[in-house]
Every structure is written in structure tokens, then in C-alpha cells.
From TrEMBL:
<protein>
    <submittedName>
        <fullName>Hydrogenase</fullName>
    </submittedName>
</protein>
<dbReference type="InterPro" id="IPR053638">
    <property type="entry name" value="Hydrogenase_Small_Subunit-like"/>
</dbReference>
<feature type="domain" description="NADH:ubiquinone oxidoreductase-like 20kDa subunit">
    <location>
        <begin position="15"/>
        <end position="150"/>
    </location>
</feature>
<dbReference type="InterPro" id="IPR037024">
    <property type="entry name" value="NiFe_Hase_small_N_sf"/>
</dbReference>
<dbReference type="GO" id="GO:0016491">
    <property type="term" value="F:oxidoreductase activity"/>
</dbReference>
<keyword id="KW-0560">Oxidoreductase</keyword>
<dbReference type="GO" id="GO:0051536">
    <property type="term" value="F:iron-sulfur cluster binding"/>
</dbReference>
<dbReference type="Pfam" id="PF01058">
    <property type="entry name" value="Oxidored_q6"/>
</dbReference>
<dbReference type="InterPro" id="IPR051349">
    <property type="entry name" value="Hydrogenase_assoc-protein"/>
</dbReference>
<dbReference type="InterPro" id="IPR006137">
    <property type="entry name" value="NADH_UbQ_OxRdtase-like_20kDa"/>
</dbReference>
Length: 246
């Protein structure tokens, strides 16, 4: 029988949603357990971490020195590291706040210093090399399931390189940008969620982060301007989940 791979799930600073989302695989978790032995998963087991991980899933942003130390340690002790969720891939809301940590600490603690060892929040990908980045707030659990099955079978997981807009079209959903004038970021956001918000007639708020490459944020900006949204609103919308400058 094939030896099981050692899997660790680690949380840096985040809301816990991405770690919890793994548990919502429910009985399909048992399929993964045919290939993996879970060595570390704070939310699901009290086992203390093993010395080496074949695969590590890391959620959250680096927002404290403890996060940074944990991340470096996990990177050193794992063969394949997945940055999981938009906090880890793009920084999410906490990294999009532009005020430097010095000023935030001053506002909250006055001259009380930095009791938690806080750092400016940054995504995992800005500190260590990652083998795979899977965005989403939270990510689509089918994607992480497929990625883990692929890795277990020796296949490199497929990276999505198309926008949410494409999935919206493939599902034949109504375009809320054109038909309703909603500020939908589907044309410039990483696909992979199967355009789930569009299924309910809502605009995409860009929770999977901006897609690099051939998308056209300037065009999106102009369309939103022409629909009557002001510059400040549009830029705040663009920056909700990332420090990305459109
Ligand atoms: S990406 Fe979203 S759901 Fe996941 S940990 Fe961050 S805030 Fe929570
Ligand atoms: S449609 Fe947009 S906001 Fe909704 S889950 Fe997908 S990327 Fe996130």
C-alpha cells in the first residue's frame, strides 16, 4: 500500500474561514485521507506537527512576527506549499489598508509600543516562494480538493488563468455590468469560483484577487466611470482584497 503523504494546515492571521472551509468537504475529506495523513490542522486535530510535510496549506496573512516565524518554519519543513485563500495570495482586506502599522499602533495603543509584534499585513506570497496559489475568500473547496488529489497522484494542479467573466459567460448568466449597471469586477478577477455570485445576480466584488496578464483594469475603470461611479468608489472597490494598484 502506498505510503500516505503528510499534510499540514496552518493559519496565520485571518478570519479562520479558509481553514474551516476545508471541513466543509464533509465526507469527501475521507477520500483525501486515503492519500494523506493529517499531521497538523489546528481546527480539526490536536496533534502536534510532524517534522516534515509533503504538503502544507497556509492560510492568512503575515501580520505578526509569530506569523512570519511560523511561515518560514513551515516553508523549511514542507516540500509543496500552497498559499490558500485570498489572505495568503493577495493580502485581503487587512493588507489593503494603506495606513502603516506604526500609525495604526499609535492610534490604538498610544505610546504602548507593539505588544503583539505586529507587522504590516502582507500575503504569504510576498515572503516565501509558494508552489501553488489558490485564491478565494474563501476559496472554492472543490479546487483545493482537486489540487490535493492531483498532488497525491503526482500531477501538477492546474492554475486558473482566466477571469470570472469567462465562467459567467459559460454559465450563460446575465451580465450584471451591462444589463444592471452593477459594479462587477468579474472581467479583471481571477476565475475559479464558477462565477458563483453572478448566479445570484450579484456583481463580483473581486474576492479572488486581480488577475494579472491580459485583463484590462483601465477599461474596467472607464466602464464604471461611464456608469456614474466616482473615482474614489472605484479605486476602493479595486483595492478591497489586494494592495494592487490598478
Ligand atoms: S481569505 Fe477570506 S475566508 Fe479566507 S481566511 Fe482570509 S478573510 Fe477568511
Ligand atoms: S464571483 Fe467574484 S466575489 Fe464572487 S466568489 Fe467569485 S471572485 Fe469572489
Amino acid at each position: 500500500m502506498m505510503e500516505k503523504l503528510k499534510l499540514g494546515v496552518f493559519e496565520l492571521t485571518d478570519c479562520g474561514g479558509c481553514a474551516l472551509n476545508m471541513l466543509f468537504l464533509y465526507e469527501r475529506l475521507f477520500d483525501l485521507l486515503e492519500f494523506y495523513e493529517i499531521e497538523e490542522f489546528h481546527m480539526a486535530t490536536s496533534l502536534d506537527g510532524g517534522t516534515h510535510y509533503d504538503v502544507a496549506l497556509v492560510t492568512g496573512t503575515v501580520s505578526t512576527r509569530r506569523d512570519l516565524n511560523l511561515l518560514k518554519d513551515v516553508r523549511n519543513r514542507s516540500d509543496y506549499l500552497i498559499a490558500l485563500g485570498t489572505c495568503a495570495t493577495h493580502g485581503s482586506v487587512q493588507a489593503s489598508v494603506e495606513m502603516p502599522i506604526r500609525e495604526k499602533l499609535k492610534a490604538v495603543y498610544g505610546d504602548g509600543g507593539n505588544p503583539m509584534g505586529a507587522l504590516d499585513s502582507k500575503p504569504v506570497v510576498e515572503y516565501v516562494a509558494v508552489d501553488f496559489a489558490l485564491p478565494g475568500c474563501p476559496y472554492d473547496k472543490e479546487e483545493v480538493y482537486q489540487a490535493l488529489i492531483d498532488i497525491a497522484k503526482g500531477v501538477e494542479p492546474v492554475r486558473k488563468d482566466y477571469p470570472v467573466c469567462l465562467e459567467c459567460k459559460l454559465n450563460e448568466y446575465e451580465c450584471v455590468l451591462v444589463k444592471k449597471g452593477l459594479p462587477c469586477l468579474g472581467p479583471i478577477t481571477y476565475g475559479g469560483c464558477n462565477a458563483v455570485c453572478l448566479r445570484s445576480g450579484l456583481g463580483c466584488i473581486g474576492c479572488r484577487g486581480p488577475l494579472p496578464g491580459e485583463v484590462n483594469p483601465a477599461g474596467e475603470y472607464e466602464v464604471l466611470k461611464s456608469l456614474g461611479y466616482d473615482e474614489e468608489y472605484i479605486l476602493r472597490k479595486f483595492k478591497t482584497f489586494s494592495r494592487w494598484e490598478p
